[in-house]
Amino acid sequence: MNRLENEMDIINPALMLAISRMRENNNLVTQNKMIAEALNARFLVPCVIQVRPGTEQEAKRNADNTMVHFNMLQTKEKEKFFIAFTDIGELKKWQDDDKQNGMVMGFDDLADLIRSAGDQACGFVLNPVTTNVMFRKEIMMDILAKRDKAVAEGKLKKVSAEEVKELKKEKADKGMGEA
Length: 179
Description:
Elements: H1 13-24, H2 28-40, E1 42-51, E2 66-70, E3 72-74, E4 80-84, H3 88-94, E5 101-106, H4 107-116, E6 123-126, E7 133-136, H5 137-152, H6 161-173
Parallel strand pairs: 4-6
Antiparallel strand pairs: 1-2, 1-5, 3-4, 6-7
Helix pairs in contact: 1-2, 4-5
Protein backbone atom coordinates (compact mmCIF):
# COMPACT_ATOMS: atom_id res chain seq x y z
CA MET A 1 0.00 0.00 0.00
CA ASN A 2 1.35 3.41 -0.84
CA ARG A 3 1.91 5.39 2.29
CA LEU A 4 -1.26 7.00 3.51
CA GLU A 5 -1.07 9.92 5.86
CA ASN A 6 -0.88 8.28 9.29
CA GLU A 7 -2.34 5.01 7.96
CA MET A 8 -1.04 3.15 10.98
CA ASP A 9 -2.96 5.57 13.21
CA ILE A 10 -6.25 4.50 11.63
CA ILE A 11 -7.70 2.04 14.10
CA ASN A 12 -11.27 1.92 15.27
CA PRO A 13 -11.50 -0.26 18.39
CA ALA A 14 -14.64 1.47 19.68
CA LEU A 15 -16.41 0.88 16.36
CA MET A 16 -15.29 -2.75 16.22
CA LEU A 17 -16.53 -3.27 19.79
CA ALA A 18 -19.86 -1.62 18.93
CA ILE A 19 -20.25 -3.88 15.89
CA SER A 20 -19.47 -6.94 18.01
CA ARG A 21 -21.97 -5.92 20.69
CA MET A 22 -24.62 -5.19 18.06
CA ARG A 23 -24.14 -8.66 16.58
CA GLU A 24 -24.42 -10.25 20.04
CA ASN A 25 -27.56 -8.30 20.95
CA ASN A 26 -29.09 -6.55 17.94
CA ASN A 27 -31.43 -3.87 19.22
CA LEU A 28 -31.99 -0.14 18.85
CA VAL A 29 -29.49 0.75 21.59
CA THR A 30 -26.63 -1.33 20.13
CA GLN A 31 -27.47 -0.17 16.58
CA ASN A 32 -27.36 3.49 17.64
CA LYS A 33 -24.04 2.96 19.45
CA MET A 34 -22.55 1.37 16.32
CA ILE A 35 -23.86 4.23 14.17
CA ALA A 36 -22.45 6.83 16.58
CA GLU A 37 -19.04 5.15 16.43
CA ALA A 38 -19.20 4.93 12.62
CA LEU A 39 -19.97 8.66 12.40
CA ASN A 40 -16.79 9.41 14.38
CA ALA A 41 -14.54 6.85 12.70
CA ARG A 42 -11.79 7.33 10.12
CA PHE A 43 -11.60 4.66 7.42
CA LEU A 44 -9.04 3.44 4.90
CA VAL A 45 -10.64 3.51 1.45
CA PRO A 46 -8.75 1.75 -1.35
CA CYS A 47 -8.47 3.50 -4.68
CA VAL A 48 -6.51 3.72 -7.91
CA ILE A 49 -4.71 7.02 -8.45
CA GLN A 50 -3.73 7.85 -12.03
CA VAL A 51 -2.03 10.76 -13.72
CA ARG A 52 -4.23 12.49 -16.28
CA PRO A 53 -2.83 11.99 -19.78
CA GLY A 54 -0.65 14.90 -20.85
CA THR A 55 0.26 15.92 -17.28
CA GLU A 56 2.97 13.35 -16.61
CA GLN A 57 5.74 15.96 -16.40
CA GLU A 58 4.00 18.14 -13.80
CA ALA A 59 5.83 17.89 -10.48
CA LYS A 60 2.91 18.76 -8.22
CA ARG A 61 -0.17 16.51 -8.17
CA ASN A 62 -3.61 18.07 -7.71
CA ALA A 63 -7.23 17.56 -8.79
CA ASP A 64 -6.51 19.02 -12.24
CA ASN A 65 -3.83 16.49 -13.16
CA THR A 66 -4.83 13.42 -11.14
CA MET A 67 -7.73 10.96 -11.42
CA VAL A 68 -8.93 8.85 -8.50
CA HIS A 69 -11.06 5.74 -8.96
CA PHE A 70 -12.43 4.09 -5.84
CA ASN A 71 -12.66 0.31 -5.64
CA MET A 72 -16.12 -1.23 -5.49
CA LEU A 73 -17.61 -4.64 -4.79
CA GLN A 74 -20.59 -5.98 -6.69
CA THR A 75 -23.23 -8.26 -5.17
CA LYS A 76 -24.93 -11.18 -6.92
CA GLU A 77 -27.84 -8.78 -7.46
CA LYS A 78 -25.46 -6.46 -9.40
CA GLU A 79 -25.51 -3.79 -6.67
CA LYS A 80 -22.21 -1.92 -6.28
CA PHE A 81 -20.73 -0.77 -2.99
CA PHE A 82 -17.62 1.20 -2.16
CA ILE A 83 -15.22 -0.52 0.24
CA ALA A 84 -13.87 0.84 3.53
CA PHE A 85 -11.67 -0.64 6.24
CA THR A 86 -11.33 0.06 9.93
CA ASP A 87 -7.56 -0.46 9.93
CA ILE A 88 -4.58 -1.54 7.83
CA GLY A 89 -4.85 -5.14 9.03
CA GLU A 90 -8.41 -5.41 7.71
CA LEU A 91 -7.38 -3.85 4.39
CA LYS A 92 -4.52 -6.35 4.02
CA LYS A 93 -6.96 -9.24 4.57
CA TRP A 94 -8.78 -7.99 1.47
CA GLN A 95 -5.70 -7.17 -0.58
CA ASP A 96 -2.13 -7.34 0.66
CA ASP A 97 -0.46 -5.28 -2.04
CA ASP A 98 2.30 -2.76 -1.35
CA LYS A 99 1.23 -0.82 -4.45
CA GLN A 100 -2.37 -0.38 -3.27
CA ASN A 101 -3.31 3.26 -2.95
CA GLY A 102 -5.89 4.53 -0.53
CA MET A 103 -7.35 7.52 1.19
CA VAL A 104 -8.36 8.22 4.75
CA MET A 105 -12.03 9.19 4.87
CA GLY A 106 -14.74 9.77 7.44
CA PHE A 107 -18.40 8.75 7.28
CA ASP A 108 -19.36 12.13 5.78
CA ASP A 109 -16.65 11.78 3.11
CA LEU A 110 -18.01 8.35 2.16
CA ALA A 111 -21.54 9.76 2.03
CA ASP A 112 -20.32 12.50 -0.35
CA LEU A 113 -18.56 9.89 -2.50
CA ILE A 114 -21.74 7.80 -2.67
CA ARG A 115 -23.89 10.83 -3.49
CA SER A 116 -21.51 11.83 -6.29
CA ALA A 117 -21.70 8.31 -7.75
CA GLY A 118 -25.46 8.70 -8.22
CA ASP A 119 -27.17 5.42 -9.01
CA GLN A 120 -23.80 3.70 -9.58
CA ALA A 121 -23.33 3.07 -5.83
CA CYS A 122 -25.71 1.56 -3.30
CA GLY A 123 -23.57 2.43 -0.26
CA PHE A 124 -20.38 1.08 1.28
CA VAL A 125 -19.24 -2.12 2.92
CA LEU A 126 -17.02 -2.02 5.97
CA ASN A 127 -14.38 -4.77 6.28
CA PRO A 128 -15.89 -7.02 3.59
CA VAL A 129 -13.64 -9.99 4.42
CA THR A 130 -14.43 -10.16 8.14
CA THR A 131 -17.15 -8.06 9.82
CA ASN A 132 -18.85 -7.24 6.50
CA VAL A 133 -21.12 -4.42 7.68
CA MET A 134 -23.14 -2.84 4.89
CA PHE A 135 -24.23 0.80 4.99
CA ARG A 136 -26.88 1.34 2.32
CA LYS A 137 -27.16 4.79 0.75
CA GLU A 138 -30.71 5.37 2.02
CA ILE A 139 -29.75 4.47 5.59
CA MET A 140 -26.66 6.69 5.44
CA MET A 141 -28.65 9.67 4.21
CA ASP A 142 -31.23 9.09 6.97
CA ILE A 143 -28.48 8.90 9.62
CA LEU A 144 -26.92 12.16 8.39
CA ALA A 145 -30.29 13.93 8.14
CA LYS A 146 -31.16 12.97 11.74
CA ARG A 147 -27.73 14.04 12.97
CA ASP A 148 -27.93 17.37 11.14
CA LYS A 149 -31.44 17.97 12.53
CA ALA A 150 -30.21 17.26 16.06
CA VAL A 151 -27.31 19.69 15.55
CA ALA A 152 -29.70 22.37 14.22
CA GLU A 153 -31.99 21.87 17.23
CA GLY A 154 -29.04 22.17 19.61
CA LYS A 155 -29.34 18.56 20.82
CA LEU A 156 -25.92 17.73 19.39
CA LYS A 157 -22.82 19.79 18.82
CA LYS A 158 -20.33 19.16 16.04
CA VAL A 159 -16.77 19.20 17.32
CA SER A 160 -13.45 19.02 15.54
CA ALA A 161 -10.97 16.16 15.97
CA GLU A 162 -8.82 18.46 18.11
CA GLU A 163 -11.79 19.22 20.38
CA VAL A 164 -12.46 15.48 20.74
CA LYS A 165 -8.84 14.88 21.77
CA GLU A 166 -9.09 17.71 24.30
CA LEU A 167 -12.35 16.33 25.75
CA LYS A 168 -10.84 12.83 26.04
CA LYS A 169 -7.77 14.28 27.77
CA GLU A 170 -9.93 16.22 30.23
CA LYS A 171 -11.94 13.07 30.93
CA ALA A 172 -8.75 11.06 31.53
CA ASP A 173 -7.33 13.79 33.77
CA LYS A 174 -10.46 13.53 35.93
CA GLY A 175 -10.02 9.74 36.11
CA MET A 176 -13.13 9.09 34.03
CA GLY A 177 -11.51 7.09 31.24
CA GLU A 178 -8.59 6.78 28.87
CA ALA A 179 -6.99 9.66 27.01
